[in-house]
Every structure is written in C-alpha cells, then in structure tokens.
Amino acid sequence: MSKLGGKVIAAFATFIAVLTYLAIGAAIFQAIEQEHEIEQREEYDQQLNLLLDKVDPVFHDELKAPCHMIEILEANPNNTAQWDFVNSVIFCLTIVTTIGYGATYPVTDEGRGFCIFFALIGIPLFMACLAVYAQHTANLIRWIMKKLGLTNGLEDEQTEKMQQLITAAFCLTVILTFSGYLSYKENWDYSDSVYFTFISFTTIGFGDLYPSSNTTDFHIIFICFLILGLISLGTVIEAQTTNFGNLLRTISSSCDCLCKNRCFGGDRVPVDE
C-alpha cells in the first residue's frame, strides 16, 4: 500500500508541477504579448477612423464591413483578443506538447526569446509527465482486466495483446467523443473534427483547422481531452512501436539464417581453436 501511495503522490506531484509551469509561462507570455496586442488593436482602430474621416458618413457602414473582413481573412490572431490568461495557457500547452497549431504566436523579441527558454524546459517536463501517466493508464487497464477475469488462462503474450486492444478501443472512444463535441461546438463536419482530433493527439498540428470557440468551459474541455488523447494515443503508438521492433528483429533473424544457409549450405562453419 505504501508503494502504491508513493506512486500516486509522485504522479500527482508531477501533474501539479506541469500545471504550475504552464500557469507561470502563461502569465509571462500574457505580460509580454498582451501590451503589444493592445497597441496593435489601437493602431488598427486609429487607421480605420482616419480612413472613415475622409469619406462620406453614408458609406461608413459599407466601409467598415470589408475592413473587418480583411482583418479576419488575414487571420492575424494578434489583432484579436488572444493573449488573455486562458488563451495563453492553451498556447503554452501547444508548446510543451509540440503541437504548435500556429493560431497564436509571439511577435515581440522578448516573447520569442522566452518561447525558446520555455520550450527547452517545458517539453522534457511534459514528456516525463506523459510517460508517467501512460504507465499508470496501462497499469489501470491491466488491473481492470484482472478484476474482470479477462486474463484467466491466458499466457503473458496473449494478455499483452488483449491489453493493447483495450487501450486502442479506449483511445478510439476518446477520439470519436471529442470529435463529436467539436462537431457540435464548431459546426464542423464530423470528418473534419476526426481529422483535427487525430492531428492534435499525434502532435502533428498542421493548423489548417482550429476551433474558434473562446469560452472558459470549452477551453477546459479542450485541455482535458487533449491531455487524455495524448496519453491514450501515446500508449497505443508506443505499443505499436514495440510490435514493429519485434517484427523487424524477427525479419532480420530470418534473413540472417537464410543467408547462412545459402552461403554455407546449412553446415556449421568450423572455427579454428
């Protein structure tokens, strides 16, 4: 019991350390980039007002609409409210997970410099946390299998295969559930939601799709599903990496034996003493 309690405490401490690091990083990024964001917004408004002063008031509404449309089409996130604390946490999470959507990015020299420093510490810290929780997830699935009697009469290799199948099913459930939520909130096609979810969980992060919802409850659900997906899909990928490694070793051994049989006719080569 004490050993189990120690592992739980260690896992919880690692989780708190990552959360604290994300919060500190978000606060620093907000302090650095938000001021520039406000200045950029004020400059844009001033330029728009100067432009409006030069035209007939009748055309103000007609002029404002295409100006704001251009701003949206340019997709410059630093012209919108992107550097509040919650969005800064999301940005920090995309750094340590190496997803890097590109929807938000630092534009000041200070912000870019701090981004490098933050990534150098944050990425290995998060990867260590991810490895710990992936191992705990695997142990939990193994414990549930034993409690349900699914491992009775099975050899170790068969038990491992069953555990991998259950983990894959759990990962697929997370992907499909989060995709359904995104499809509902963002009004995306379900296929687009599945695509975005998979690209996110694998940390590919193209950035061609990105949610526009900006509510606190959406951000919380987004963060929870992202971490859960990284853990579950990471466990599946690690298992498949092991399987492919075993397959390649088997192929290598078979080729080695075939080569020896062809070269030496299957006879044992004498070794001089």
Task: Please explain how this structure is put together.
There is one protein chain. The protein is mostly helical and 273 residues long. The chain has seven helices and no strands. It has helices spanning 2-53, 60-74, 85-96, 109-147, 156-186, 190-201, 216-264. α1 packs across α3 (85-96) and α1 runs antiparallel to α4 (109-147). Residues 68-79 have low confidence and may be disordered.
Along the chain, the helix and strand elements come as HHHHHHH
> For the terminal residues, how far apart are their CA atoms?
57 Å
Q: What does the radius of gyration come to?
A: 26 Å
Instruction: Describe the oligomeric state of these chains in a short phrase.
Output: single chain
Structural class: mainly alpha
Pick out the low-confidence regions. Answer: 68-79
Count of β-strands: 0
Strand content: under 5%
Measured as a percent range, the helix fraction is over 70%
Sheet of most strands? none
Tell me the number of helical segments per DSSP (H or I, 4 or more residues long).
7
Task: Please tell me the overall pLDDT.
Answer: 82
Shape: elongated
SSE inventory with pairings:
Layout: H1 2-53, H2 60-74, H3 85-96, H4 109-147, H5 156-186, H6 190-201, H7 216-264
Short overview:
This protein has 273 residues and is an all-alpha fold.
State the main characteristics.
single chain; 273 residues; elongated; mainly alpha
